[in-house]
């Protein structure tokens, strides 16, 4: 369950939305920290046994960077070859807007990838994620370069 929040100047949170989708870029860093079996947790949920199930989490911070097709959310190209997916180190790459054709991974949507990494701090997770992002390329790739900066500023104070 993901809550989209707007935080007022005085720090008061206001809920804008609730989401519960595994494909959301907000969910993927959370899943990166899950050490327990997701399948077992889902099965326990269907049996009404979640309250009897131990869930184990990685204590490290996770951070995800969405890589989008240039022009997204407006008009964007599909069918561009993605290179560098095998050069991402320990980061995990969640594919959303991709397809495989003739053994090549191609863009096939606006939000194409979410590159997610773990670190002992937000700064370390950010560094690992962006290192992996820089290893991946396709024509007109776009990604934000400010993911995690506010959390790092809080971490440094």
What do you see in this structure?
This protein is an alpha+beta fold and 157 residues long. The chain has one domain: Glycinamide Ribonucleotide Synthetase, Chain A, domain 4 (Alpha-Beta Complex), CATH 3.90.600. The protein has four helices and eight strands; from the N terminus they run ββααβββββαβα. The strands form three sheets. The chain has a four-stranded antiparallel sheet with strand order 4-7-3-8. A two-stranded antiparallel ribbon has the order 1-2. The longest helix has 14 residues, at 122-135. Residues 61-152 form the Phosphoribosylglycinamide synthetase C-domain domain. InterPro entries: PRibGlycinamid_synth_ATP-grasp, PRibGlycinamide_synth, PRibGlycinamide_synth_C-dom, PRibGlycinamide_synth_C_sf, PRibGlycinamide_synth_CS, Rudment_hybrid_motif. One of its GO terms (molecular function) is ATP binding.
List the helices and strands and how they pair.
Elements: E1 2-7, E2 13-19, H1 27-33, H2 38-46, E3 61-69, E4 92-95, E5 98-101, E6 104-107, E7 111-119, H3 122-135, E8 141-142, H4 149-155
Antiparallel strand pairs: 1-2, 3-7, 3-8, 4-7, 5-6
Order of strands side by side in the largest beta sheet? Answer: 4-7-3-8
Helix content: 10-25%
List low-pLDDT spans. Answer: none
Note the total helix count.
Answer: 4
Secondary structure tally: strands: 8
Question: Structural class per helix/strand content?
Answer: alpha+beta
What order do the SSEs take from the amino end to the carboxyl end, as H and E?
Answer: EEHHEEEEEHEH
CATH superfamily: Phosphoribosylglycinamide synthetase, C-terminal domain
Assign the CATH architecture.
Alpha-Beta Complex
Domains (count): 1
Average pLDDT confidence is 93
- In percent terms, what proportion of residues is strand? 25-35%
Our Rg estimate from Cα atoms comes to 17 Å
What is the CATH topology descriptor? Glycinamide Ribonucleotide Synthetase, Chain A, domain 4
Shape: globular
**Amino-to-carboxy terminus distance:** 30 Å
Sheet with the most strands, sense and barrel status:
4 strands, antiparallel
CATH class: Alpha Beta
């Amino acid at each position: 369950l993901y809550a989209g929040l707007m935080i007022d100047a005085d720090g008061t949170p206001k809920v804008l939305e609730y989401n519960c989708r595994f494909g959301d870029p907000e969910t993927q860093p959370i899943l990166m920290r899950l050490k327990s079996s997701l399948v077992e947790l889902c099965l326990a949920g269907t049996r009404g046994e979640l309250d009897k199930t131990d869930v184990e989490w990685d204590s490290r911070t996770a951070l995800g960077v969405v890589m989008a097709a240039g022009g997204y959310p407006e008009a964007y190209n599909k069918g561009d070859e993605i290179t560098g997916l095998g050069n991402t180190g320990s980061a995990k790459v969640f594919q959303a807007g991709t397809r495989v054709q003739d053994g090549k991974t191609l863009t096939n949507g606006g939000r194409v990838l979410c590159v997610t990494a773990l670190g002992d701090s937000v700064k370390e997770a950010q560094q690992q994620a962006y290192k992996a992002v820089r290893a991946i390329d396709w024509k007109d790739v776009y990604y934000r370069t400010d993911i995690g900066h506010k959390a790092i500023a809080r971490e440094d104070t």
